[in-house]
Write a structure and sequence with these properties.
This protein has 20 helices and 22 strands. The strands form 4 sheets. It has a 6-stranded antiparallel sheet with strand order 12-11-16-15-14-13, with helices on both faces. Strands 18-19-17-20-21-22 form a 6-stranded mixed sheet, sandwiched between helices. The chain has a 5-stranded parallel sheet with strand order 2-1-3-4-5. A hairpin with a 2-residue loop joins β18 and β19. α17 packs antiparallel against α18 and α18 packs antiparallel against α19.
Length: 532
């Protein structure tokens, strides 16, 4: 990524070093600009990267050269054993390298190649350091490196912003100073996080922790990953930590939990893989579950528990076109599944609402019952007949008994509709005493229909018809007003396997009018018009 140009100055009375260095190829990403000077006054030292002195010198010369060169320039002195003996410890410390004389060509080449590798390693290290600093400073998470004693060696800018200190303030300091803890808090171990450091050092693996930290007089919640750092020999030399501030997210989760806890529904929340994330108390109470037992398990696993619960608690599952319902304990719940969509429009989870629809269902049933029931007699009406036929379209083994009250209109005309209604109610009670209520239909006015879905013996149907006539006669014989009313009945048995109800009904109607023609208060059987 980088390219480095080395400005090399050689101060020498001969060309031997210059000639050798110009034959040595630069390393990858490097180039050399090499110049030779006979006198120190011929070039400025301030713009040189490598300065090689192969001229007679005194200790004061070395100090002068060191002072004049730029800070990161390398100072190399060529000296024989006599010159080296004159150098003090301080002067040795300011010299970057000494090339021992007398020279051999391959020795100068060795010195310079070693110097090249040293410079390259330094450049590579600085670049790697820059990579690391740029990377960690670009992240919003808090990142830090500690030695084995817990002193902070490096932190990123997010860490500095959180604790309100600079990197220079933090370097080499411990948790107590960095986070501004009170002595009492540190003594108690509160908000120190030392215990999690010990876990990482003991278990020698990356671990995830939920940590509460006090910073700048406020509490923050972190999701923290901590990992051990090893040296070349495999020994732990410290730890690295990455902490995500989830305080706001945790607050949102708390608010969400408060919300779902106060919703009037039993609620279950899963992720996109249907692993359970949350459930409110209404849900837990509904199915006698403990929250700790279901969080983190799949919905399929919970479904197995559902079966046991349903059997134990006498719940009944009903699947309809309108959805899934749970019936039990005089309650009805509709299970409604909704998708949770993330900001990218993808499914991130599901929410299952168990909505109590008992009142609505009862009200709906009452409406259906009202729509399918005759208001006066409480018998099934024509609408109910249509539903009945839709559920049983096959007319095989079916018989009809069509009943009509003779001269009923006269009752309404002479005595009023109230008396007529009273007669219809009494007659309906007679039919309910003889036939199942699901098989009785009031078609309108004084006309009634009985449907037999499984044909019994013909004699049994005729006997039932006669019972209707007899019981009605017994009822009206007690009244002077109703003595002129009678019952006529037409019966048809589907012996020809008719497939159209209207065709079968017409035969019953023909039999009914045949009864009226013969004198009323009797029944007739379609087919050979057998008359009792």
């Amino acid at each position: 990524m980088y390219k480095c140009t080395l400005n090399i100055a050689i101060y020498s009375n001969d060309d031997s070093i210059f000639n050798i260095l110009t034959t040595i190829h630069p390393l990858d990403k490097f180039e050399h600009i090499i110049k030779k000077y006979d006198k120190i006054t011929e070039a400025k030292l301030e713009n040189k990267d490598i300065i090689i002195f192969d001229i007679p010198f005194t200790p004061s010369d070395i100090n002068d050269w060191h002072t004049r060169k730029k800070a990161d320039a390398l100072l190399i002195v060529c000296a024989d054993s006599t010159s080296m003996k004159s150098l003090t410890s301080e002067e040795f410390n300011i010299i970057d390298d000494i090339w021992a004389k007398p020279f051999r060509d391959n020795l100068i080449s060795f010195y310079f190649k070693k110097l090249q590798n040293q410079i390259k390693q330094t450049k590579d290290f600085k670049l790697t350091q820059n990579y690391l600093d740029t990377t960690i400073d670009s992240l919003p998470d808090l990142i830090w490196y500690k030695d084995i004693r817990g002193a902070h060696l490096k932190v990123n800018q997010s860490f500095c912003n959180t604790v309100g200190k600079t990197k220079e303030d933090i370097a080499g300091r411990g948790h107590y100073y960095i986070w501004g803890l009170e002595p009492e808090e540190y003594e108690k171990g509160e908000y120190v996080c030392l215990e999690t450091d010990e876990i990482v050092l003991r278990e020698t693996k990356t671990s995830l922790f939920d940590e509460k930290v006090k910073c700048i007089n406020e509490m923050r919640q972190f999701k923290t990953y901590k990992s051990p750092i090893f040296d070349d020999s495999g020994e732990i030399i410290g730890t690295v930590g990455i902490a995500r501030d989830v305080t706001d997210l945790t607050n949102i989760q708390i608010e969400l939990d408060i919300l779902i806890q106060n919703m009037p529904f039993a609620i279950l929340i899963t992720d996109k893989n249907r692993v359970i994330l949350n459930a409110n108390s209404r849900y837990l109470n509904l199915f006698s579950l403990n929250k700790a037992d279901i969080i983190g398990i799949s919905l399929n696993t919970l479904s197995e528990k559902y079966i046991d619960i349903i059997q134990k608690e006498h719940w009944k599952i009903q699947r309809t076109k309108r959805g899934i319902y749970l019936h039990g304990h005089n309650k009805i719940f509709k299970i409604q599944k909704e998708k949770l969509i993330d900001i990218f429009g993808e499914i991130s989870g599901y929410i299952f609402l168990h909505i109590d629809v008992t009142f609505e269902d009862n009200y709906e049933n009452k409406l259906l019952q009202a729509a399918n029931t005759d208001f006066l007699t409480q018998l099934n009406n024509r609408r109910s007949l249509n539903d009945f036929l839709a559920q049983k379209p096959n007319l095989h083994q079916t018989a009809l008994m069509l009943i009509d009250l003779d001269d009923f209109k006269n009752i309404n005309d002479q005595y009023g509709h109230a008396e007529g209604d009273h007669l219809l109610v009494d007659f309906s009670k007679i039919l309910l005493n003889i036939f199942p209520s699901n098989n009785i239909f009031r078609l309108g006015g004084d006309e009634f229909l009985i449907i037999f879905t499984d044909i019994i013996q013909q004699s049994a149907i005729q006997e039932a018809a006669q019972t209707v006539i007899d019981q009605f006669q017994a009822k009206i014989s007690q009244s002077d007003v109703l003595e002129k009313v009678s019952v006529s009945i037409g019966i048809v048995i589907n012996t020809d396997n008719l497939s159209d109800f209207n065709d079968l009904f017409k035969r019953a109607d023909v039999a009914l009018y045949h009864s009226k023609h013969l004198g009323k208060s009797r029944y007739s059987l379609w087919n050979k018009m057998i008359i009792s």
